[in-house]
Design goal:
heterodimer, A: alpha/beta, Rossmann fold, five-stranded parallel β-sheet, 8 helices, B: alpha/beta, globular
Chain lengths: 249, 243
Amino acid sequence: MKTFAELNFPGRLIAVEGLDGSGKSTQIYLLKRWLEAEGVRVYFSEWNSSELVKSATSKGKKRELLTPNTFSLIHATDFADRYERHLLPLLRAGYVVLCDRYIFTAFARDVVRGCPPAWVRGIYNFAALPDLTFFFKSDLEVSLNRILDGRPKLKFFEAGMDLRLSGDLYESFRIFQGRILEQYLAMSTEFDFIVIDANQRVEAQQAIVRQLISQRLDLARFKRRSPLPLPPPVRRYEKAFEIDEEPVE
Amino acid sequence: MKARTQPDIVIPKPGRRRFYGHGIAGVQLEELVGKLIVVEGADGSGRSTQIARLVEWLETTGHATVQVGLKRSTLVSAELERAQEGNILSRTTLSLFYATDFADQLENIILPALKAGFIVLADRYIYTLMARDMVRGMDEPWLKNLYGIALEPDAVFYLSVEPQELVQRNLSKSATLDYWESGMDLGLSRDLFDSFVKYQTSTQAAFRQLQKSYGFTIVDGNRSVDAVNGEFRKKIMAVLAGK
């Protein structure tokens, strides 16, 4: 498997990985804001967000229809759709693409659910590797507490209840997240994760992320060549169109 | 009146059972006492007619049947249908979407039915999905890994019909050719007729390629319904006898 740079794509892909509650989404959001302010052509894509597959996934989750295999395949479908429809063309066009979770999420989760690692990796082998992967490593307890402090309503699959680890939703979530963390750590060297200590303050982490990116990417290459085009004139029928906004948390 | 034992009801004997790859975790193969019969072939090759005949025959001879087919899963069939209408799927997405549909039916219908001793008749199985993807340039090893979850059927029939004959049958049935069955997404030709013939020819080549590794029975579907059905029955009787 090769990175987009190794495959001579003009664009670059940066992925963030980490447990729920590791703060990775906050970090990638701040990264996006910075790159945008710098005038970099940037696109953000989130795990499990393809419009095409969404209704099937939510039906499967709500009605608890998913098995480890269909859970894996439906997420792979979602990923393939975003990959072929958005990521590839944007990377061909020289964008910096930011991914909140990438194939490593599947490698970790699906394997914890009992799918053979070779099967899962084989399915995703159509995807190139990120040029940079940040892994936000927090202590298990820290991320668990961030999620569980508010005693949120955890969802069935989110808590790994399908694995029958525990009858208690919160206990199941703890065991499940612990196992995912083990998988991430096992992949860290193999896939060149840049490990960020996620127990630090938000600003401290962001400073490291920005510094690393400035070192590793020549940002000037990804800037818009001309100033932003003027917004189109306001017309009466403007409201008739749905504007596709990039998902922001 | 006391019911008499029907002497001609055959209790199926076990045959060889295996998954193509790692399969589905937790499944005990020896518990799958039913039989899985697959009928493959293009639209117009006579699949549905043959399956209807087989159901009729199997049920009258005392076997319980279940039918499955592509795009019939609870999980994704509606979404898959919608996506295909919009023609917005790229090839890997389409492939994985169908694989999801297959896995859902395999785990929720096929395996439980086999465990309960049913004869499962599949109106197409992984081979059609693989052949379609191969024609679209997908890698054969990638597909084999993907479908490593699939159970090896007890019998697979591939109804081979000449593309020119398929054209005639499809036109006489619906007066047009289906967009996907004509492979129009591949841009082989702007002309539906030409595209259909080219696409069906490449699909048949892909089936012959797959036949090398999966060894299914190629049935000459240019013959009469009865002749084809006779061949099916003979093979299925051997399957029921555990051969």
